[in-house]
Specification:
single chain; about 250 residues; Rossmann fold; 8-stranded mixed sheet
């Protein structure tokens, strides 16, 4: 079943209204697949009306695969993408900052890489996919969007304020360009880290776009106290333009 548009309601308004959020999430499909290492992993899929469609893998932040990321997934489906929100936390969803930090620390990098590789391979041969895939992630998931694209190369990568501490030798494995959204008031992913990453990308000969926003980490999440509507809309427009160009 295709994702039905929530006409007249922007994403932020949908997330702010529990009834609208539930309506969006209700249109998603729960899927379980086998990874290359034989593990069973789950995710939520949004099916667009028109197929074959450009395809995106969405990677949640440290709070896990909650209704916020599922609503974003539904919006990608409404925008014409075959979209899957993956789960790197085995079904756990945080409700406090302390729980989110604990969940983030509990993620096994090898298992996360295997999970993402499994979804990329599954989507690559999906009948509804045009065989072009992008990864999109926020915070914790932003770093994993880059990691996934290095481990299993895809056509485009979008990072929202995620850690980008990778060396040129790793970045040479990238297939497609990278779009990075970063916040000037972010205490964890700052200018020094991003500048070093840009230098490594240049050394690796890889294409990228970097945008800075006068905001704090989490500015694109309407459920966060740090949400900045103006910057979120700008980043969203840039993301859609970038994915539209490369997928």
């Amino acid at each position: 079943m295709a994702v039905a548009p929530l006409a007249g309601f922007p994403l932020a308004a949908t997330l702010a209204d529990p009834k609208l959020a539930r309506a969006a999430v209700a249109n998603l499909h729960d899927y379980t697949i086998n990874t290359p290492q034989g593990r069973r992993v789950s995710g939520a899929l949004a099916m667009p009306i028109g197929v074959p469609a450009p395809t995106v893998i969405l990677i949640h932040d440290g709070w896990g695969l909650n209704d916020q990321i599922k609503t974003v997934t539904a919006e990608y489906g409404r925008q014409g993408y075959l979209a899957v929100a993956v789960d790197l936390m085995a079904g756990s969803v945080a409700t406090t900052t302390e729980e989110a930090r604990a969940l983030t620390r509990s993620v096994d990098p090898a298992a996360a890489t295997d999970t993402l590789a499994g979804w990329i391979e599954w989507l690559r041969v999906h009948d509804a996919s045009n065989r072009k895939i992008g990864t999109v992630g926020w915070c914790f998931g932003g770093g994993w969007a880059l990691n996934a694209s290095i481990a299993t190369p895809v056509e485009a990568t979008v990072i929202y304020y995620g850690r980008v501490t990778r060396v040129a030798g790793d970045l040479r494995k990238l297939k497609g360009p990278v779009l990075g959204h970063f916040a000037t008031r972010d205490r964890f992913v700052g200018a020094a880290m991003v500048t070093a990453w840009e230098q490594a990308m240049n050394e690796a000969g890889k294409a990228y776009e970097t945008h800075w926003y006068d905001a704090d980490r989490g500015f694109a999440n309407p459920t966060s106290a740090r949400y900045d509507e103006t910057d979120a809309r700008l980043a969203w427009g840039r993301t859609l333009a970038f994915l539209g160009k490369h997928l």
